[in-house]
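Milestone 3.1: sequence recovery, worked example.
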């Protein structure tokens, strides 16, 4: 696990389940903070470590202090390798967007497949025009989206700065959806034609889906006219 700031909170229940024997996994949690005083649940996590029979460990990483018993700096792939075999692990990440951006680059260097990386999600993507790589000349554009649902087809309008899922819902089409941020894949649809923008930071598609043209409409933004097949309405 990798956490930053308040992102350590979801790992609390996982650690408790390990200690209580409910969950049979080994968890190494890399937790980044600026200073020791910023650490949340420090004493509780120490107690959980002590009672875990070696199945749960926290590595504290301080950005602004160099103290005995703590790592100093940032959570890098080199640091992770010092504690575990990075190729044989799944990564669960929770924290601020800056942490996601940094860790993504570190794991890319290690050729970790995206299917082994899971992130806590925080709902609908906002201000897409501020994301790296978004075509700024499309910001004010509106496009036509031809949608196929079963035997029916319909063409709807969509703004470049709103996700395809929002455009579908505005038009009265309500495909299944869950996280609304690209992770769960419940809204998975097939892109037949057209150009779209998908932020790398939230692209939760499997490699096979990318290869065969599947998208997650909740994290996909049209930058041309688009044609797509979506699941039947829930």
């Amino acid at each position: 696990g990798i956490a930053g700031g308040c992102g350590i909170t979801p790992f609390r229940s996982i650690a408790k389940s390990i200690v209580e024997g409910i969950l049979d996994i080994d968890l190494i949690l890399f937790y980044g903070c600026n200073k020791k005083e910023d650490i949340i649940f420090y004493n509780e996590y120490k107690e959980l470590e002590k009672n875990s029979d070696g199945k749960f460990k926290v590595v504290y990483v301080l950005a602004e202090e160099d103290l005995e018993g703590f790592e100093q700096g940032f959570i890098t792939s080199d640091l992770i390798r010092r504690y575990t075999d990075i190729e044989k692990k799944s990564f669960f990440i929770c924290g601020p967007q800056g942490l996601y951006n940094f860790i993504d680059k570190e794991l890319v260097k290690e050729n970790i497949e995206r299917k082994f990386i899971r992130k806590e999600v925080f709902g609908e993507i906002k201000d897409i025009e501020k994301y790296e790589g978004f075509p700024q000349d499309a910001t004010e554009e509106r496009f036509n989206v031809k949608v196929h649902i079963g035997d029916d087809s319909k063409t709807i309008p969509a703004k470049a700065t709103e996700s395809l899922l929002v455009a579908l819902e505005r038009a009265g089409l309500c495909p299944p959806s869950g996280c609304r941020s690209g992770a769960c894949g419940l809204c998975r649809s097939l892109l037949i034609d057209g150009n779209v923008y998908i932020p790398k930071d939230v692209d939760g598609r499997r490699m096979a889906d990318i290869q065969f043209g599947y998208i997650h409409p909740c994290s996909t933004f049209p930058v041309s006219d688009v044609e797509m097949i979506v699941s039947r309405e829930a």
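The first strand starts at residue 2 and ends at 4. The two ends are 34 Å apart (CA to CA).
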